[in-house]
Amino acid sequence: MADPLFTHYYPVFEEGIFEKHPALFGRFLQHSPDHLKESYQKARVALTKYEGSITWPLIAGPGFCGATHPGADNIFVTAMASSNACIYNSDCLYINPSQKIFAISDAPGITTSSRKLFVRLDYYLQTGSIDGIENMINDLNRETEQHDCATLSLIYFPRDKSNKRSGKALAFIAGDTYLFHGNIFQRRLKLIEGKPEFMGRPHIHFEPERIDLAEGDFFIIASDGIQSIRCNKEETRLEEALLEHIVDGALGDFAFSVIKSCNTVFEERINDRVITRFGGSDNVSALLVYPEDLIDIDCEERLILGGYIADKLS
Predict the structure, then answer these.
(1) Most buried among 67, 70, 185, 234, by the most CB within 10 A?
(2) Across the chain, what does the average pLDDT equal?
(3) pTM for this model (two decimals)
């Protein structure tokens, strides 16, 4: 039987991108003192070795697709500013198809707190009863130290007593990571409100939002870096911008399309200057789940993507 989960890695900087867009360096080389210009010129030459070598992962399976990206502009600015800087992605995805749980966590700063959160959650899920997921989330909250605080947006599709799909979803939302509920036939997308507090606030009790499922329903989870998304028109609501990336109902292409959009090269006018820059000034993650296409997977494979601090760029 073929592996139902597929992971592919794409380059943050494609081959030849800096030669194709020399104007990317304009904001560093213009109006800078000579000693900084020399440093930036060295960084510009060094950047070409990262073309194709720094990657971001996309995972897809029956009924879902997701990706996490360290942020193209985030890495670009870091590399230009310091040769000793590190690549990091504080965002983290949790993919658990067998138990029908999908989540994103984001932690402030350069940290692995989101990955630590999912490692503990995964342990709870493998050693306890999934029927007690609300207790698990709140135990996780109480046991998370304040210096390891992180967001959590999680969607779970439970089964009824006869082990059939219940026709419901449970959503837990902590912090500023987004969770949207949409319908492909009605072409609508609505933000699900949660608690603004991050995980790691022991005085807070997180309760699930119970959602009745209808034909064509889907869910999108995204970290706050999704605000880098590029739209066809100005002043577009985030929900409308996300829907633009569901073309002809091709839900499986969503994560790739959105992540590429957030990290594309574009021109930005600031006062009387036009600046060429990458999108992705923050880590960005997106995960789409289409519950009607979720299948029972025999393997117990669970994946945690992101939440890392990598080696220094040098």
Answers:
(1) 67
(2) 90
(3) 0.93
